[in-house]
Amino acid sequence: MSYFPTTRLRRLRVTETVRRMARETALAIADFVYPLFVVEGRDIRQPIGPMPGCYQLSLDRLCPEVDEVAELGIPAVLLFGIPSAKDAVGSEAYAERGIVQEAVRAIKKAAPQIVVVTDVCLCEYTDHGHCGVVVGERVDNDRTLELLAKTAVSQADAGADVVAPSAMMDGQVRAIRQALDGSGHQETLLMAYAAKYASAFFGPFRVAAESAPQFGDRRAYQMDPANVREAMREIELDVQEGADIIMVKPALAYLDVIARARQQFNLPLAAYNVSGEYSMVKAASQLGWVDGNRAMMEVLTAIKRAGAEIIISYHAKEAARLLRGER
Ligand code: PBG
Ligand code: ZN
Q1: Three-state secondary structure call for residue 211
Q2: Whose C-alpha in 31, 138, 185, 326 is 20 to 30 A from the C-alpha of 305?
């Protein structure tokens, strides 16, 4: 082992070319999944206040957006639906002509090569805003499973390539895998929001998806931010139940969870760089307090360095442009 002055680590940082040679982590456009919010109606491209650059899109405005994503080389989109009518059991989540189902059909027709991922949850579709069926003040786990399974099957029927359950109900991966297999969808992938925390960083999403709970919060089903061993149990169960891809969400406050998951499991690992993480970078950048592009690339690189090979991010289009050397 040799020390200073023989060893000088600054030699590895001397020019950009040398730094490039020594670099351990490189983002690729193929790493990204771009989330989209679909609304009913026509000719709607409604900016989402706390998420500058993101929009609620009606079906007719969705395809041009997806074309842009595809042209940038981003392999996948993740769809969230905002129905015009909500009820206690989230009927529009599993309606054959529901907003997400129609969006999947439209995208599969216009850009068949793009991977379409659908969020499987009820909170955008229930009038109380919870992720499942409410009995009294509680979300009933086992009754919710059936509806999540119906939702996933209807999305697969519409042509979704990947279904991504995010409700944090016990047994949801098993229920959905069984229902998919039982309806001829053996080929449909399942990306499990395996370790999803009860996070303040979902705030802007709930504005975008109009899905804030009308009473209480999600702490009785989403994870306690203090726990990492429990996250490994959550992931392990989802692997046993048949997940193809596992996910940690949010990403930035949970890089240790990502790193542990990468060490402990051999499945492809996704991380969700959630709405609040995006909003913070945008807000500070608008105020001139950070360099937005640099902060964005630093954050995304950190998520990859921690061990995620799939990065779900509202920054995906901007990051892809930078990676292509545009702008
Ligand atoms: C639905 C869902 C949420 C997010 C993804 N799927 C919100 C929530 O659980 O409240 C959050 C995504 C984001 O903040 O970007 N269950
Ligand atoms: Zn939900």
Answers
A1: coil
A2: 326
Q: How far apart are CA 173 and CA 240, in angstroms?
A: 9
Which atom belonging to ligand 1 lies closest to the Cα atom of 276?
Answer: 14
- What is the position in ligand 1's atom list of the atom closest to the CA of 202? 14
Mutate which of 202, 214, 252, 274 for ligand 1 pocket (most atoms within 8 A of beta carbon): 202
With a 6 Å cutoff on the Cβ, whether 122 touches ligand 1 is no
* pTM score, whole prediction: 0.97
Beta strand 133-135 with 138-140: parallel, antiparallel or unpaired? antiparallel
Chosen CATH of 27-323 out of 3.40.190.10, 2.60.120.620, 3.20.20.70, 3.40.50.300: 3.20.20.70
Contacts of residue 89, Cβ cutoff 8 Å, sequence gap at least 6: 122, 126, 133, 147
Place of tokens 């690729």: 28
Residues with active-site annotation: 196, 249
Ligand minimally distant from the alpha carbon of residue 212: 1
Chain centre distance of CA 254: 14
C-alpha 218 – ligand 2 centre gap (Å): 9
